[in-house]
Amino acid sequence: MMIVPPLWREAARFPADLARSVALLVLVFLAHVGQAVAIAWSMSAVLRGQAQDVLLALSMILGIAMLRLVLSLAQASAAARLGGRVRQAVRRRAMEAALVPERLHDTAARDGSMRASLGDGVDGIDAYVSKYVPAIVQLLLTCPIVVVVLLVTSPWAGLCVAAGVLFALVGPMAWKRMMARRGLDHWDSYEALSADLLESLRGMATLRTLGDVSGTRERLQHRSEALRRATERVMRVSLGETSVTDAAVQGGAVAAAAVAVTHAVTGQAPALEVYLILLLSSEAFRPVRELSRHWHAGFLGLTAVPGLERIGALSERRTAAPGHTTSDPVSDPEGGPGSDRAAEDRPADVLRVRGLSFRYPDAPRDVIHDLDLTARRGSLTAVVGASGAGKSTLFDLLLGFLTPRTGSIDLDGRPLRARDIAVVSQRPVLFAGTVRDNLAVAGATAEADLVEACRDAGILDEVQRFPRGFDTEVTEAGTSLSGGQRQRLALARALLARSPVLLVDEPTSALDADRSADVVRTLHRVARDRVVLMISHRTETLTGVPDVLSLDSEHLGSTS
Ligand SMILES: Nc1ncnc2c1ncn2[C@@H]1O[C@H](COP(=O)(O)OP(=O)(O)OP(=O)(O)O)[C@@H](O)[C@H]1O
């Protein structure tokens, strides 16, 4: 028996569904017992030559069989409902825990592991909760009743069955720890293979360029081999568990049958009792056999728990990456950076950063130290600095993805909120869907707005040349578009957000000189209506920018 407390808690979150599933399972079991009693009665009636009783017993058997069929169907449906609800709740919590800005800086997080936990891990929990938990409860409720009935009918037969049930339950516990260890090893191997595979697929271009495709294939084959070995080890344990359970069940049933035969031979008990002992002792082991049948379900659930706990799917509270908090000082309570669809058309005048300091966990010193910065509506503000100077960190602080150690970030004298900001990153993310879907992430969907934003971002002519215009499908991660097109589409999306602050990280890195000049002109124009802060590595983009701020190793100082 594998009792996993976190999974019992998941089941207990839906007490009505759990109770319905267990109650129906118990009723199905009682139907089996009723049928066994009716069979015993019919057989003894045959022996006694009482045709009327035989007919009555046979119709009872038939009636109970029909009832059992209906109950079994209802039970399967109740179990599926319970499993489905638990699965949905766990996935919801996993999404809440995963889609947080802190994850951006969680250096231990691997997307492939997350995918494995959300897919097979959650399925494992469903199986445990919908099949294994009700089977345990059923066993605990029903086995003692049948054993007591048997003890009353024939103490020896009752004792044989009780010993068999106990041995079937306690026997496999002898290697419980080994079972858990092998299960977790198996899960770790599976997670590692999933994560490596996903990263290899994403990095295929790099692997090809570096000529390491075959090396990666080999590494994945090693992983796959490790998973195969782990699976075999698990199967061996499973075989052991099944053998012990089977031996206990068969041993108990045979011993009880021997007692029944002895009664029959010595004439100690009437035929009805002998048949009852034979049939009930078999029924007493039914819950044990069912539990054993769901062993795999229980095991899947058991192994999925650590992965799901790691991503915070088994607790209501959001988990933060190590060293970070889930609080968001630059956004208001309703609007975390994840809920920041910009809603405000109202322009703001000045973004002011005062005394800002930040240090990465375990880093020896601040990456941003006592930083002051002012960016105003009306003209473009650029931030320059050597690689590693902290430009991206500054943006992450402004966006609320990181929590400053000290300092404040204000917009027109009030704390900056995540929803005040639209952002164009160096490697903008586009999602699978149409061009329109990708632009609609920012909120506005009116055709005229899309056209205007795309024109401003210098992408309109290309979108209009696409076979289906705004309804052209963009493949996952925008791979069907060029780097420059992705960047300009992201700029259009940011313009549509109409946020009072626009952060742009090197907006021209993927553009040719003409396009680059166009985009910079657009930014100058946009900066008349909102605060625009631009990270720049290219000096040509700084032409005409009145405020160029240089981020040196520890603080920001104006060079303009
Ligand atoms: N998650 C992290 N954990 C620890 N240190 C980090 C982390 N992210 C960045 N750093 C460190 O912080 C410093 C600033 O990094 P940041 O990415 O902000 O620089 P940057 O100016 O944007 O560089 P680039 O121009 O190359 O993009 C670097 O020394 C970097 O190694």
UniProtKB/TrEMBL annotation:
> Where is it located?
Cell membrane
InterPro entries in alphabetical order: AAA+_ATPase, ABC1_TM_dom, ABC1_TM_sf, ABC_transporter-like_ATP-bd, ABC_transporter-like_CS, P-loop_NTPase, Type_1_exporter
Transmembrane region(s): 54-71, 132-150, 156-175
Q: Which UniProt keywords apply?
A: ATP-binding, Membrane, Nucleotide-binding, Transmembrane, Transmembrane helix
Q: Which Pfam families match?
A: ABC_membrane (PF00664), ABC_tran (PF00005)
Is ATP-binding one of the keywords UniProt gives this record?
A: yes
- Its recorded name reads ABC-type transport system involved in cytochrome bd biosynthesis fused ATPase/permease subunit
The organism's lineage? Answer: Bacteria, Bacillati, Actinomycetota, Actinomycetes, Streptosporangiales
